[in-house]
User: What shape does this take?
Amino acid sequence: MGLNTVENYTKMKTKRILVIDDELSIRLLLENYLKKTYEVVSLNNGEEGLIWLQKNIPELIICDIQMPLMNGYDFIKNVRASGFLKHTPIIMLSGEESSDSRVKCYKLGAQDFLLKPFNIQELDQVILKNINPIHYAIEW
Assistant: This one.
């Protein structure tokens, strides 16, 4: 068997990922890369994300920390307060290389944290382990 990659999971039921980032370039990068395997919804800020989440439940959320209107920390708090969304995995993105930021995200309920610019192969692995935590590893 090959490496653990998104391509190895193309036979899976299509999963929906919500991407929230105020940087258009990051949204476009994630949309174009992830749409090969997942249904991707891309939004500009945390407020838009919360409105969308009122009628939709994704399998995973990827969210920036520094955004206008509602930052990523407040977004996590709101998602975790929701009965339907409190167990939805959240991967946080940030350009701020601070251990304090990572710890704050984890304490608020984020599963993972990636520093921008991120390695797309690392993102693949982080997504797979969060969407399929029990069946993630093909080879041990």
Q: What stands out?
A: The longest helix spans residues 120-131.
